[in-house]
Design a protein that fits this description.
The protein is mainly α. It has a single domain, classed as CDP-alcohol phosphotransferase transmembrane (TM) domain (Four Helix Bundle (Hemerythrin (Met), subunit A), Up-down Bundle), CATH 1.20.120. Helix content is 78%, strand content 2%. Strands 1-2 form a two-stranded antiparallel ribbon.
Length: 257
């Protein structure tokens, strides 16, 4: 019995390597993205950012599923995210399309990285607080993913990057603002990859994978753009509903008088 308990303790200590390994892979692909951008291989740089996002998604899921969450893992994840989703997309966009804009271009790239760092810092200060199903502000992996799929989308349609300098510049500023805003975004915290799921959900996931496999750049662009827009749309609907309720209360008060 003692031997089994010792083995279980070793297993519990060793299993912490797994989520941190996924975080390390996140950092690895973020670093690779920077290297590819410097070398002018922007398509591979964008794909590396998306791969970093996959490992970023899995490390948290695996840590919660195996009960191996730790403060060290959370801090390591944030540092990796700053490289993969803050610096890497900023460098990629600057070298690809923003560099001819001079100071305006590199300031936009820096603003994106700085807002990403602020977004991560704000998230870390709320780690120990009971959260809900929403993020406050656009998550930095989603912002980086939007930049990556935008690049892939433009290249897929064989559009001239020179004609997209100012739209990309505007997108960079918008994403920077959304990251530090108070707009709510769905966090998918309740989505558990290691529990049984409805058959229809599995079919829907299969259809999404087929769409991604057939037209990856276009499909990922539409999905990511939909998520980016969901925050402002939800905020507008909430504001509209609240005003409507206030007007109903005012009308009810007038009717009583």
């Amino acid at each position: 019995m003692k031997i089994k308990s010792i083995e279980n303790k070793k297993f519990k200590k060793g299993i912490y390597i797994l989520p941190n390994f996924f975080t390390l892979m996140n950092l690895f692909f973020g670093f690779c993205s920077v290297i590819f951008s410097v070398e002018g291989n922007f398509t591979t740089a964008a794909v590396a950012i998306l791969l970093a996002g996959v490992f970023d998604l899995l490390d948290g899921k695996i840590a919660r599923a195996t009960h191996t969450t730790s403060r060290f893992g959370a801090e390591f994840d944030s540092l990796a995210d700053l490289v993969s989703f803050g610096m890497a997309p900023g460098v990629m966009m600057y070298l690809w399309v923003l560099q001819p804009l001079g100071r305006l271009g590199w300031l936009a790239a820096f603003l994106f990285t700085a807002c990403g760092a602020l977004r991560l810092a704000r998230f870390n200060t709320n780690l120990d607080q009971p959260g809900d199903t929403n993020f406050t502000g656009l998550p930095i992996p989603a912002a980086a993913g939007m930049i990556a799929v935008t690049l892939l989308f433009i290249l897929e349609l064989q559009l001239s990057p020179e004609n997209w300098r100012f739209p990309v510049l505007f997108l960079t500023y918008v994403l920077s603002f959304l990251m530090v805003s108070n707009i709510k975004y769905y966090s998918f915290k309740k989505v558990d990859l290691f529990k049984s799921m409805n058959f229809n959900v599995l079919v829907a996931m299969m259809l999404v994978l087929i769409l991604i496999a057939s037209k990856p750049a276009i499909t990922l662009y539409v999905i990511t753009l939909g998520y980016i827009a969901s925050g402002p749309v939800r905020c507008f609907l909430w504001y509209f509903q609240r005003n409507h309720q206030n007007q109903d209360l005012i009308s009810a008060d007038k009717f009583k008088d």
